[in-house]
Design brief:
The complex is a heterodimer of chains A (about 1000) and B (about 500).
Chain A (H helix, E strand, L loop, with lengths): L1 H18 L6 E8 L10 E4 L5 E3 L5 E6 L5 E5 L6 E4 L5 E5 L10 E4 L2 E4 L7 E5 L22 E4 L10 E4 L12 E4 L2 E5 L11 E7 L2 H4 L10 E6 L6 E15 L9 H14 L10 E7 L2 E7 H5 L14 H5 L4 E12 L3 E13 L6 E14 L4 E15 L31 H7 L1 E18 L4 E20 L5 H5 L4 E24 L3 E24 L16 E24 L3 E12 L8 E11 L5 H4 L4 E15 L11 E7 L4 E7 L1 E5 L5 E4 L9 E14 L4 E13 L2 E5 L8 E5 L2 E17 L3 E18 L5 E8 L4 E7 L6 E4 L2 E4 L3 H6 L12 E3 L19 E4 L5 E11 L2 E11 L2 E4 L5 H4 L28 E3 L2 E12 L10 E15 L14 E2 L6 E11 L1
Chain B lengths: L1 H20 L20 H12 L11 H7 L5 E3 L5 H7 L8 H23 L8 H26 L22 H18 L12 H21 L10 H16 L11 H4 L2 H4 L7 E5 L14 H5 L6 E4 L9 E5 L5 E3 L1 H6 L5 H4 L2 E2 L1 E4 L2 E4 L9 E2 L16 E5 H12 L3 H13 L11 H15 L6 H7 L3 H8 L15 H6 L5
Helix pairs in contact in B: 2-5, 2-6, 3-5, 5-6, 6-7, 7-8, 8-9, 8-15, 8-18, 9-15, 15-16, 15-17
The chains are: A mainly beta (about 1000), B mainly alpha (about 500).
Chain lengths: ~1000, ~500
Amino acid sequence: MKNFIACCSIFLFLCLPAIIVHAQQRKITGRVLDDQAKPLPGATIVVKETKTATISDGSGRFTLNVPARGKTMMVSYIGMQTKEIPLGGQTDITVNMQLLPGNLNNVVVVGYGVVKKSDLTGAVATLKGSDLNKTPASSVDQLLQGKIAGVQVTTSGGAPGAGATIRIRGASSLNGSKDPLLVVDGYPWGDAGNLKQINPEDIASIEVLKDASSAAIYGSRGANGVIVITTRKGKAGQHRISFNTLQTKSFLSNKPDVWRDPVEDATYANESAVNGGAIATDVPYIGIYRPVGNGMVYFPSIAELRGLDPNKPQWPYNTNWVNLVYRKPYSQNYTLTADGGNEKTKYAISGNYYNEQGMVIRNGYNKYTSRLNLEQQLTSGITAGTNVILAYTKASGQQLGVGRSRIWPVYDSAGNYFRNSNTDFGNPIALANQLLNTTKTTDFMGNLYVNFQINSWLQFRTSINAKSGNSIQDQYDPKNSTQRALDNKGSYGSIANGNYFDLLNENYFTATKAFGKQHTATLVAGFSYQKTENRFSTLTGQNFINDVMKNENLATAGTMLISNDLQRFSLASWYGRGNYSFKDRYLLTLTARADGSTKFGSNNKWAFFPSAALAWKAGEEPFIKDLNIFSELKFRGSYGLTGNQGISPYQTLDRFGSAKYFTGSVFETGFGPGLAGANDEQGRTIVAGLGNNSLKWETTRSLDLGMDIGFYDQRFTISADYYIKRTSDLLRLKTIAPSAGYDQQWINDGEIDNRGIEIGFNAAVIDKADLTWNVGGMFTKNVNKVVAMGESNQVFIGTLYESVRQQISTYTVGQPMFAFYGYKTAGIIQSLDEGVKAGLTGVDAQPGEIKYLDISGPEGKPDGIVDSYDRTIIGNPNPDFIYSINTNVRYKQFDLSLQLYGVQGGDVWDFQKMTPSRWLQRWTPDNPSTEYPRANGTRGWRASDFYLTDGSFLRLQNVTLGYNLKTDAVKFVKSLRLYLSGNNLYTFTHFNKGFDPEVGESGINNGAYPRPRAVSLGANVVF
Amino acid sequence: MKKYRFNYIFSGILAAALLAGCSKMTEQPYGMINSQTYYKTPDDARAAIIYAYSILPEVGYYSRGYYITTELPTENLTQKGDAGVGNFELDELRTTSTNPDLDNIWTYAYRGVARANAVIAHVPEIPGMVEAERNQITGEGYFLRALHFFNLVRMFGEVPLRTTTIDDASQIPMARSSIKEIYDLIISDLKAADSLITQQRISEGRANRPAAEGLLAKVYLHLASSKASGSPGYEFVANADDMYAQAKLYADKVVNGQTAFAFTPSLPDIFNIDIYKKAAVTEHIFDAAVDRSGDREGSFSKLPNMFLPADRPMTIPYNQLKPDSATIDIGQGWGHFRTEPGIYFSYADNDRRKTQLIVSSYTNNGQTYQLDITSSSRPFTRKFIDPERIGDASSANSPIIRYSDILLVYAEACGPTAEGYAAINKIRARAAIGDLQPGLGVAAFRNAVIQERAWELAFEGNRLFDLRRTNTMEKVLVQQYGKTITSGAYFFPVPQREIDTNPLMK
């Protein structure tokens, strides 16, 4: 698109001098700036009455001779709204250009080409890099939240350097990847979610391919949708250097709900022990010594904590862990860019330094990225270019808990980290200072392309793309510092290495030809070959002599463990697309891709993904045009197939396992059938390794019906889509008879259904020279359902939670993915009689306990006993709908923008429900609460709807106030913009105070990393 | 120029397309062995049998699962209050088909069968092997398959009799075989092992000729006593006395026919890692072997933690009869298993298997603590301890065939003969409880041996099968020890996962 604009500019620049009429009246100088207050070279400035014209230069400046009868100046630029400026007495005029809202002539990047927005037949959303919120973000993924209809972006906390979960039109795989395919400058990179290698400020545009028609050209990787990122390129006719910086201070957005008073904490702990049946000496706070290591630790009594024990002094400690663990971190971001070019050469160079401090002490993330983009016209028909990206990141530290009792000090009397038992690993200051946890990554991406313009209608493009990188994670847990250290014979050190290499060759022809006045056709046809290799190795040491060297010399460990692995796979593809337009009103697109993958079984090596789309530009029909209502009216429909090849390599082959066995003096190694893999929910090793020659991709059949409407010259636009996505041949680990010696085998069966509505709108409410007001928004509703899973009606997924002794998330036929499973409850039991009548026994029937309901039994009806038959689907973490509102107001040099993001419906399983402030309201005989149970340290609760809370929220996501300095105010500076940006400012919700309701896709609150409230000061300077 | 360009482009395209389009996109695995690349050399054969052994000390088998399944139902062990539901079902003899512990032991035994089948199927085909080694390894494969099926048939009764390797999912459906068919295979496998394995002792953790003969004696004794007592499912056995004779024949080969393994006079020494792993002659004919230097549970054992109370690190005298003798630090555990009063009070007070092998008091930091049989931290067996353990990693082997076990098999098979009395009295003498009353009838004598086995082999996973094969589950567990039996007295239910996934299981 940029190239197209640049070409047009050059054309105009060359031709216009000839038509400029030289008349000696009045001389006006001025400057044209874009919507970001950056100079706009190549804009056309015409005196309306006389057609006298000129072009702005590289810094946006122009000089115009205005004849006497010239009264109005028109400034135009492709993609911008044309401005008319009455010529008064002034001789120096600054023109602020605005982007045309939803301009129909804008081009949109789709797979293997570009298409005019008005000619789109599929569901493609587009977002400009400049529309991203100005807030610290290590990757662009989280900035997409609330920006595009049909795209759900979830972040599960605010850990520095964290990515995001992106779902386009719902999740459509049980076990394969649910992430969209990410394509950067035409190069398919893999799963979206953490695009740390690209500085968000380098992004020119983001296109999201949502339906089968647009995504089918990515074949077996297109089923989850495609995100196409286009980086900024240099423009001809300008040379500029720009410097952007963002300085950010962050604050806790939720005040942690911890015990405020050690007496309340100790009272609760004692009550919990007593109710749990602890013997007298096991009640914690009774003024008693307990052994720790070789010494003893004194547990004060409640009277001492109160200072009321006549024989003991007031307990001296009251540690505020929140203040010790959390800080107000300061983060910085700097980008320096040089770009520009002439008609033959275009370049863009940029470098970025990003430093994000975590909310938690000694936790942070650093990133350096640099990018070079160069394009050279070699001959009149041949253009060659390259794009090179380098990225380095370093993350260190970890999340720490703040729930530790205030009764305990940080250090003991000898100055060592205090611990109250041999297995007390909860001192966060000890963990922060003792544990080593650093991850460093380096990435390199490069591509080289040559474009041949063979004749006026045919071109060919070939490219070589490569990307490689590595990551190293260093970890060390000193002696007896963590449970992991204990489990690893005392101390644990490791070095984990990963590296990858990916090579892609793409070759495709593009032919565009008009036949007569009514027929236009574009054909794309090509071939690609991609080869990927991922390599991992981990070195682990257990049981070190001392902690001096940490993980620096793992060979000194008592026990050493080594593991390494390599995955390699290749993908060969043929693809093609035909666009046909009749009378510029009736549009047809046919797309297909054939993918051959080494990952597929020998019986199913090649997959074929066709799609078709039709669009009717009704607005171009004379009878509608005559109505003079619509500036655009288009109806679209598409149907097609896309795939998901989310299989790990080698799953189609039989694979042997290995194990060691001790034979008296040494461990010997054995091999045989049955590959020991991951552990299941009982901690048992799962054995796989039975090959499946027929294993193949998942297939998604999608139907999309949409329309685009525009009014008032596109000042008001609406796009709405309805879709049905039916995914079949789901990749699934089938449970096989254990007597065969195997547990699982990958097979294809089962179906998922997603259907929904998405609406995006934009309105330029006020559009004056000095004042503009724009309002945009989106609404997304997706309904997800598991239709079939072969012989299973329900599978449990995710972590086995010790506290409730079961997995809580399920895939259940007829239910949405991640549906929660457990008991239903009805408040709190108030008397033993009530508990027993409810079908409960033992401690579960006691007053003050949660009243679980007897809803079924072995016969399918209530049997008077609350047992596992009474479990059922109790909740759904998928939201009913998500929505957002974006608005911005510009008045002269000032602009103000605001984004609201909301999620409605969706249950959260809140494992943090019983916060200290709620424990204060717990059931006691004197306070017969109907909401919160009694303290009891030894009984475990069951998985039940007691934990479920509505996760709806509306967040004031971002507010930015900007000021664009008047140009020419500072010498050598072409433009200067200063802005203040606030992120995550306020959340309207009924969720548990102390926690953020946005907890991730599966809707489980385990106390995620706190999400910061960030206030940033930014500056963009162009020289 | 244009023409040249076209040619250039098209030849390039064609070359690239041919390169990939015509390739079959076959996978080239990395870091992975499979049936295409294995069973080629004698070293492959050795590694195949090592893999077959390595299932034994896994968590789900002899490092934990076997003891959970076989000890909880008896009067020996119960479990801590927050143990899993599967433990409670076993302990209270009300097992269901969804019991996770039974699913576990079923799964691990069949994994062992699959690995043994791979040895039996492939090792005879490997070219270039020395015949003696080929026989030995194949024989060990037969031994292991027999052991797994003996466990399966004693636990579940009729089960699928898998004797071939599984190469394709179509082989998975398989019906149950009768108990007779299963025993026929076990006996023929053990006879094959007995003839193929010629060595008396190979190394720690590997089966040898006495192991094959000892296991065969146990198999015949199981058939004999099941038939004699009318235990359910064993009606097919033609003649109990023939089976007793066979049991005696093979037990005799172990008791009197070899010198690699023998009776250990001192009880603590039997379970002393330094002795049973290093001495030339020990009681441990066949163990699931582990070592604390291993890199994961299964290579080392955490079984001691299951027995040891969780309160605090413990120090005990090596010989508890001599409180002043050298002490050993045995650490602390999880207190998962709790000794039941039934077994604890059944011992005579002076029975050394109680006074020397059960820890009832210990010291910590100079202070002495008594363990109470009714509390959560109870007296516990010290058969599984490792004073040198590193963290949770212990070298405590799980004995599968112990000399004293076979000696008692011999006594029971002989009946009240001189040899029979001599065998049982040797055991009783070591326990310092005096000779068995002479002149007992056949049934009374054999009952006495069963009781002797309960004391001698307590916590080693024999008691459940002794009760089942003597048809005394109700008599002993219900009438004597006051338990209730709801289901699974003689055969546990086959796991639901098998029924759901194997269409021929009904």
